[in-house]
Amino acid sequence: MRGLFITLEGGDGAGKSTQIKNIESFFEEKGLLVVHTREPGGTPISEKLREIVLDSHNLEMKDVTEMLVYAAARAQHVRELVMPALEKGHIVICDRFLDSSIAYQAYGRGLGDMVGIVNAFATGGLAPDITFWMDIDPDEGKRRVSRLGDLDRLEMEEGDFHFKVYEGYKAIAEGDPERVKRIDATRSVEEISEEIKKYLEQICEKRGI
Ligand code: TMP
User: Which of 55, 154, 169 should be mutated for ligand 1, with most atoms under 8 A from CB?
Assistant: First the structure.
């Protein structure tokens, strides 16, 4: 049986990492093998591409180049790690996936439909079984991230970039409510964990896990 592909999305500072740990424990308690990975990254080649795309010195990087580097990292990650793990029946939890490219590059950078077209090749058609969108106001997200110290190239973006990204996530969630679950990330960690757990129980029941 193919495993489950779970992704977490959201603006920076939405608290994805804490929830990923909780999701991991949920499946480990069921005795299932969990692969925890991230985008951009997850394999040695994709991690190198991550360094390039997030490097705060690469200010000359063009929007199209940025979009293609994310897609290239994804193409490698999907084929080298995600698909093989799913084929073995593992649970794959991924910190960001294609929705990030739609929100940040299609909406944030204004690259539009091109992003979906390129990424259809990059993903080979692979889509998550369920996605948690950690919904947080972009201003609050920015405040939380700034407290953490050094910012990467995307986090440094000013102006309305992060609001456009937010609009992107909203559109994705509204367009695919079956897959994308909006999680109000302003609540306590416990409340958020409980809600996510409910969704996980539902999907496990549906898939006979
Ligand atoms: P993070 O791993 O700390 O969330 O950082 C990754 C950054 O890259 C984050 O600002 C979102 C951005 N990003 C994109 O712009 N497009 C993408 O396709 C992905 C996966 C991430």
Answer: 154
